[in-house]
Amino acid sequence: MTAPPYPSALPIPGLRRAWWLREALAAETAPIPAPPLSGELSVDVAIIGGGYTGMWTAWFLTEMAPGIKVAIVEADICGGGPSGRNGGFLHGWWEQLPYLVERYGREAGLQLARAADEVVEGTGAWCDQNGVDAWFTPSGYLRVNAFPATHYDWEGLPDELARLGAPGQLRHVEPAAVQLTCASPAFREGLLMPSAATIQPARLARGLRRVLLERGVRIHEGTAVRFVDHGRPIQLTTPSGFVVADQLVLAANAWATGWPGFRTRMLAWGSYMVITEQIPDRLRELGWKGGEALADSRFTISYFRTTPDGRIAFGAGVGSAGYDGRIGPVFTSDRGAIDRVVANFRHLLPMLADVRFDDAWGGPIDITADRFPEIGSREGGRVHYAHGFAGNGVGPARLAGRTLAAMVARVEDPLAATALIGRRQRFLPPEPFRYLGARAIREALIRLDDALDAGREPGTLTQLVAGLPGLLGYRFRH
User: Fold this and answer.
1) How far apart are CA 74 and CA 223, in angstroms?
2) What are the distances in angstroms from CA 194 to CA 92, 154, 345, 370?
């Protein structure tokens, strides 16, 4: 039987909130109000940003320092940014363990990887304990080699992890076993991270919001910060009021790419997603029944997972770079990026060419020179920050929040990312060279990936431009 023609009409990104957030908001019953700030508010700790990093920081502060007065100010609503738009992949840094050991030493590198892995079970347990139905599904993360003529890129990695003291955290999967997870003609070998999970990202964000409000944390949505006075005490100026605090946490992530002191060490990049209509029967035909998280091995990675109601949420890092830290429509309304996401979907899952897409959206991710976050303090230890999650912030943002809370409360936490504290990232080129270079490299990377997808050898110029970041000492690969 011939499949129906591929539907030509694609949803337009940027016209409404992401599907995840609309679904999560619709599921809320009698949400606690978090009105814009009006007047003056005095607290021990103020947090700018109501995403994962800011809210996990507030949560761990209430655990480490009971009675502490905390306020979160958020320009939009909690979960309105990347925390409510991402793919919902919840995993740590096992693929990066050799790099962590190389940079920080074996003991510190292993501690970081284990702390990052705690976020999976820790998030699941937190959801259970607090009555948050975030669709937590601990079914592992399988990265596949979908290049027809290229060898997989993890040769020897599982054995290396075993030598470093982390046996079984990554497993090579032969093609026949990959097909049992999801039967696609494009999939060859796979690399499995069995400890990983998926969540509904906006449900987690909105669940954090509810629990924090119930704990007495002050949250003011619709409250943009116009000015920060770093005096003693710190004062935040908002359109209708002030927040006075002893300590400040900056948890703005991609928005920090435009801030002094951070803009030279981070780059904002666009990532876009689509979600299909409900196709539970088609998923069963593919054998994709366990909720496994999947991704390919492109540099401009495609990542995809299912939902409990039988949809596929599919994304790719094919958006554009921002200029000088400005977060604008290029990150939310790029229809060309959606065309590329859908093309990747059709390449990886050709048997689903007739499936309708119900929504499309995008958002910014913040990338540092080595794709690991910056965590540190300024202003004599009174202003703290964490950002640079490189599109993999669902789990590491919990780790960063835990680390920031320990820094603010001045307590020791064996699961804090202590090796990252105070380690500044390498400088990126200044504007306009950063923007122009990022655009050229982005196009080269997409052409490189497209050539490998087609089984062709990429052109010499494409390979040269795509390899420039590595030649300059930047570690942008996944």
Assistant:
1) 5
2) 11, 16, 24, 24
| Cβ proximity of 273 and 361 under 8 Å | yes
- C-alpha 206/C-alpha 15 separation (Å) is 21
21, 367 contact by CB (below 8 A): no
Peptide bond into 458 cis (omega under 30): no
Using an 8 Å Cβ cutoff, are 196 and 89 in contact?
Answer: yes
Distances (CA, A) of 274 to 7, 283, 313, 355, 360: 14, 17, 6, 12, 4
pLDDT in tens, 3-62: 344 455 899 999 999 999 999 999 998 899 999 999 999 999 999 999 999 999 999 999
How far is 57 from 83, CA to CA, in rounded Å?
A: 14
- Name the pTM for this structure: 0.96
Residue 293 near residue 142 (C-beta atoms within 8 A): yes
- Spatial distance between the Cα atoms of 325 and 344, rounded to a whole number of angstroms: 28
Contact by Cβ (8 Å): 335, 9: no
Cβ burial of 180 (10 Å; 0-12, 13-18, 19+) is: exposed
Q: Tell me the CA end-to-end span of the chain in Å, nearest whole number.
A: 39
Where in 325-373 does DSSP place strands (E)?
357-367
Give the three-class secondary structure for 184.
coil
Of 302, 293, 405, 387, give the one whose Cα is nearest residue 83. 387
Q: Decide: 195 and 92 in contact? Cβ < 8 Å.
A: yes
Q: How many residues does the chain have?
A: 478
CA atoms within 13 A on the CB side of 239: 9
Distance CA 449, CA 308 (A): 31
